Automatic annotation (TrEMBL):
Belongs to the ComF/GntX family. Keywords: Glycosyltransferase, Transferase. This is Phosphoribosyltransferase. GO terms for molecular function: glycosyltransferase activity. InterPro entries: ComF/GntX_DNA_util-trans, PRTase-like, PRTase_dom. It comes from Mycolicibacterium flavescens. It comes from the Bacteria.
Length: 209
């Protein structure tokens, strides 16, 4: 009856009666050589690791969470993020104790989406990981516009000076986000944290455009 009223569809391909089908799960799986290094147009000064290209089921899942309220897909993206984070720890590219800092989301966007999806994803990904904690240490100041459709230069101007640290973070830090496009948000997040004396080791994203 519930499927008749609110039809359940796969967030990656639209297949009926499932939130996430086997084919899309396979497409999002973190492979042995992933995450890969990404090269956003704006270099944040630390390595940027991505779990895959912003395309196919990965893209549709991110859009479904951010734009269509599919909070049921947050655990799906969180599982991929957890696998990528575990891989970086296993490779010795990160070390514990480690603090994961979600990239900032505009307050009005978070309210519209029923909460900050990046922070929720980070908390789910890091749950019970030994030596790993999550700190929502960054906020976006007022007047930062939605970056969709902006050029690289416009994105940089839009975010410059509009990310602020709301708490100090000690030790090694990993910044996480759902997607990196131009790298403007990642670069500003890293800059603000480093200005406050925080040692940022890398950025990890679910997808890179």
């Amino acid at each position: 009856m519930l499927d008749l009223v609110l039809p359940l569809q796969c967030g990656g391909c639209g297949a009926p009666s499932t939130r996430w089908c086997g084919d899309c799960a396979a497409a999002l799986a973190v492979r042995a050589d992933e995450p890969h290094l990404a090269a956003p147009r704006l270099d944040p000064g630390v390595p940027v690791f991505s779990l895959g290209r912003y395309a196919g089921p990965r893209r549709r899942a991110v859009v479904a969470v951010k734009e269509h309220g599919r909070a049921d897909l947050i655990p799906v993206l969180a599982d991929a993020l957890r696998a990528g984070l575990t891989r970086l720890l296993t490779w010795g590219l990160l070390d514990t104790p480690l603090t994961v800092v979600p990239a900032p989301t505009r307050a009005w966007s978070a309210r519209r989406r029923g909460g900050d999806p990046v922070t929720r994803m980070a908390r789910a990904a890091c749950a019970d990981l030994p030596g790993v904690t999550v700190a929502a240490a960054l906020r976006t100041r007022a007047l930062a516009a939605d970056s969709v459709g902006l050029s690289t230069a416009d994105r940089q101007r839009n975010i410059a000076g509009r990310v602020k640290a709301v708490r100090a973070v000690a030790g090694e830090v990993l910044v996480v986000d759902d997607i990196v496009t131009t790298g403007a948000t990642a670069a500003e997040s890293v800059r603000v944290l480093q200005t406050g004396g925080t040692r940022v080791a890398a950025v990890l994203v679910v997808a890179n455009a």
